[in-house]
Amino acid sequence: MARTTRASARAAEVSGTTGPQQLSSPPATPVPDLPQGRKIAPNVKKEKANELPTTHVSNRKSSRKVIKQEESAADELPHNLGSTFTTSPGLNKPDRKSLSKRKRHSAEPEGDDDVKTEDVGNAEPMSRKVKRAKYGLTPGISPFPDYPRPTSEECYEVRRLLEKAHGKKAAPKVIPEGSMNVAGCGEVPRVVDALVRTRLSAATTGRNSSAAMDGLFKTFGYHDKTTNKDYVDWNAVRVAPNKEVFEAIKCGGLAQVKSKDIQTMLQMVWEENQERKAAHLDPAKAPAGAENEPESEKQDEISRAEQDVISLDHVHLLSTQDAIDKFLTYPGIGPKTASCVALFCLQRPSFAVDTHVFRLCQYLGWVPKTTKKGQPKVNRETTYSHCDVRVPDELKYPLHQLFLEHGKKCPRCRAATSQNSANWADGCVIEHLVKRHGAKKGGISAADRKQAQIAAGLSDYEGQEEDDFVEDEDEEAEEEEQ
Q: pLDDT digit string (tens) for 238-282?
């Protein structure tokens, strides 16, 4: 037997012949080459076993360790969506080289992307088993049941004051067709269209999301001569190579995440359409909401499914909460997006809470600053659950729109502003009602609060005495010191 020297031992250790190394998470199964015409998903990635580089860590001791780096999390689909799904036949084979290149992407700060899909095999259809993050929603029940605000009177008063500054907001009697170069918040007639537009608008500016919508139309759009209207062919988006969808919306930001989310969602809806068609054709079965669906609409559903026209218009048959629950099963769709689509597309009362609404709810004291033991923390999801219970249904649409506009335009209530910001002296129409975070955000004096209340036409200062204002001012000073 040959003598083992230190040098030969180190060489064997470096070459990996000393035994297999255990990774904390094994690499994905390689994707086999598929013959031309075989079904393949837009976001299939061909893994290579030798893609894991080795890094040598040396020291002066006799032993050396070889650390095998794990596969980068950026190379996986976002939010544990898995690695592959297959689409319907007829999809052109994507460029393998482009599919192997993955750029690191940032997660959505909005919390609308916490979705996990079970990993499926490379040759199996996409799994419909989607594991949603638990957002802590409590439909119909406030997570802060002992917190009495906002009252109905407060809601009506805030609407009155904000309408003085921004004009009246009312839901349209007939939802207009959406522009093909404006993303918006989902106020369009068709549900799939509303979901995609709202998804594009997440975590970016209105200008960027609208540019992404324009890119989708230029790549996948068409003009219907019968209706003389423009549409996006969502089935074409579904079966297209992911690179093509990415290129169409990359100007909107977070395109790697959003392109995969949109295609996965469209695939899920397509499969649901096929399932509903089969159920309609089987006398022993009935899909959800069928009892409320006229026969003509059932036939329209069957016809659309046969022509691969992707549609979620049957969601109109569901209750508001059932519709929101369905939206939450789709990747990238969180409570804010689901609530917006329910409010604007389905025209159901739902108090959607985005970053501006959340900020103003905190300023107005509509949610508690601190919670009791056993209660969840105050965030956008719990604010949505709380305010959706306390805000009157008829005010949910106008207050959402008014909060959105005020949160963007008010020189004192915008996200990035301080007492040194431009137009700060113009004031705020709800100045006497808000208590912002810190002096830089306008912790106002008793005198300023009185003037704001007088300007609002409140001669009795909401029943507060001089001592109340002084006490509030002292509390603000203590908070600043802390």
A: 999 999 999 999 999 899 999 999 999 999 999 999 999 999 998
* Residue 331, C-beta contacts closer than 8 angstroms, at least 6 positions apart: 79, 81, 113, 115, 117, 130, 260, 261, 264, 265
Its sign, for the CA torsion 78, 84, 87, 90, is positive
How far is it, in rounded angstroms, from Cα 366 to Cα 142? 12
The residues near 357 (Cβ < 8 Å, ≥ 6 apart) are 351, 383, 400, 403, 404, 407
Query: From CA 333, how far away is CA 199, in angstroms rounded?
Result: 7
The pair of three-digit structure tokens given for residue 170, joined into one six-digit string: 């009312």
Confidence of residue 419 (pLDDT cuts 50, 70, 90): confident
Which 8-state DSSP code applies to residue 127? P
Residues 158, 301: contact at Cβ < 8 Å?
A: no
Given a contact cutoff of 8 angstroms between Cβ atoms, the answer to whether 410 and 402 are in contact is no
Asked if residues 141 and 406 have their Cβ atoms less than 8 Å apart, the reply is no
In the structure, what pLDDT confidence band is assigned to residue 98 with cuts at 50, 70 and 90? Answer: very low
Structure tokens given for 117 = 């899909």
Check: CB of residue 140 under 8 Å from CB of residue 149. no
> In this structure, are strands 54-57 and 130-132 parallel, antiparallel, or unpaired?
unpaired
Q: In angstroms, how far is the first alpha carbon of the chain from the final one?
A: 74
CA–CA distance from 190 to each of 222, 236, 310, 313, 341 (Å)?
A: 16, 17, 10, 6, 10
DSSP one-letter code for 91: P
> Which one, of 136, 46, 150, 141, lies nearest residue 96 by Cα?
46
Alpha carbons 283 and 290: distance in angstroms, whole number? 12
The amino acid occupying position 125 is: P
Tokens at 137, concatenated? 């929603």
Of 74, 105, 33, which Cα lies nearest the Cα of 255?
A: 105
Greatest Cα-to-Cα distance within the chain, rounded to the nearest angstrom:
102
Q: Are strands 115-117 and 130-132 parallel, antiparallel or unpaired?
A: antiparallel
8 Å CB contact between 44 and 94: yes
Q: Give me the amino acid identity at 63.
A: S
What CA–CA distance (Å, rounded) separates 135 from 114?
Answer: 9
Instruction: Give CA–CA dist 161/387, Å, rounded.
Output: 19
| Nearest CA-CA partner of 258 in 404, 52, 43 | 43
Quick check: helix, strand or coil at residue 57? strand
467 three-state secondary structure? helix
Closest by CA position to 480, among listed 417, 438, 437, 428: 438
CB 303 within 8 A of CB 280: no
- DSSP-assigned beta bridge partners for residue 230: 223
Question: 145: burial class by Cβ within 10 Å (0-12, 13-18, 19+)?
Answer: exposed
Which DSSP letter does residue 232 get? E
